[in-house]
């Protein structure tokens, strides 16, 4: 049932984005290549072979996009820094790019001038390509020191103004999609070991960066350093069946616990160690494919988060499923489970993203119980549409937003320590291996138009109302928000249709005029030749 009420005073409302997905300018002003530049430039890696080379042109449109943030009346903006934009090879001693540093300085200053808090992620997947080529990226332990140098440069250059730092955004996807399935950059399929090894190095790196901040910068800058972990919720198919309950628990531990358990409890979840260890032994391996932390490392990693960022999009039903003994085990067969969805769940966009609002409340309560009720910021939550034509009246996103934020409000009343919510995302943007086919934005972008204009969707107007009321005051007012948002988007849709027609005409003109001109010249030459021949 829907709960009417408001969030505590001081609750932070915001939106997010990431560097590679929005900035563009992939090789401008001294930026070095990232693994995503290299990956997208290979044919067949991304839907329609699209790239983030220009993306939303966010590099050139900072002022415009900050105006959108002001329109939304958000308290904070979560964005990421592109490591190769400020350190082209990823190695501090080799080269710094002052223009890249200036770009982020200007962005941070503009946000603060407009009373918007910057929440900054140091890593949203765009590793410098040089580090991948030279060392194998996150498969190599040397990344720990290179990343720590980069993080310290960021603290030095921006830490006087940035007080909320995220070391890694969704490291699960970095490890699993980058080094296990190869769906994401760097596109490696190191089945069974790749993801575990990458995650191991990422966790150690996170801890090192937290300790660096703690010893060198905290007393002077008074900021916080956390990590942002993305996880779905796993609900047992039959909650009265212990086997299903155990399978659902494994689902959470193999997603969230993989990273959260070392940080909050000092080691990988027992169930992960048991399952991966057993499967490794069955394969005849001398040691587990899941690496181990030494006693010193466990102590060093435990407690290295001032807050926990949570990304959450959807839920699955989970049940036990034993995989036959496989010579080549993988992260996906290790937990012995199967995932199901309820066909009645709304799925407005991509086939993986079902709208199941109650899942977020259960996930937040699990975190409260499992990790000692840490300070939480929801760092990513949103829904995409997968439509070819532009649709600004996105009532499904309004329903998703309304449902999920309301369940977060219920979680707050359960005693969960949630201090902020970040909707994902500000703009339609480059969605990794899906290209531009999935659109998460509150603002539609016409990517066919070279100016990449932004158009507000109905959900932007609705989110603004939630922020303004700090929640859901009463049924009549909340119902009124929906009607107003729909009215507004109808008008904007007409503007977009007109603009799109003009863009189309301009494109036609760009092609037709030179062609007609060339034909005229050609015909003139032919006529001239004929004339001269007749008169000779």
Brief summary:
The chain has 536 residues and is of the alpha/beta class. 47% of the residues lie in helices and 13% in strands.
CATH architectural group: Alpha-Beta Barrel
Which term fits the overall shape?
globular
Class by alpha and beta content:
alpha/beta
Query: Helicity, in percent?
Result: 40-55%
Q: Which blocks of ≥5 consecutive residues have pLDDT under 50?
A: none
Strand arrangement, major sheet: 2-3-4-5-6-8-11-12
Notes on the structure:
The longest helix has 61 residues, at 475-535. The strands form four sheets. An eight-stranded parallel β-barrel has the order 2-3-4-5-6-8-11-12, surrounded by five helices. Strands 7-9-10 form a three-stranded mixed β-sheet. Strands 1-15 form a two-stranded antiparallel sheet. 47% of the residues lie in helices and 13% in strands. The N and C termini lie far apart (94 Å). The protein is globular and about 100 Å long. The chain is an alpha/beta fold and 536 residues long. The chain has a single domain (5-473), classed as TIM Barrel. The chain has 16 helices and 15 strands.
Sequence-ordered SSE layout with sheet pairings:
Layout: E1 5-6, E2 12-16, H1 19-22, H2 35-40, H3 62-72, E3 76-80, H4 83-86, H5 98-113, E4 117-121, H6 129-135, H7 143-158, E5 164-169, H8 171-179, H9 194-221, E6 224-230, E7 233-236, H10 242-265, H11 270-282, H12 295-301, E8 308-311, E9 315-320, E10 337-340, H13 358-370, E11 376-380, H14 395-413, E12 418-424, E13 443-445, E14 454-456, H15 458-469, E15 471-472, H16 475-535
Parallel strand pairs: 2-3, 2-12, 3-4, 4-5, 5-6, 6-8, 7-9, 8-11, 11-12
Antiparallel strand pairs: 1-15, 9-10, 13-14
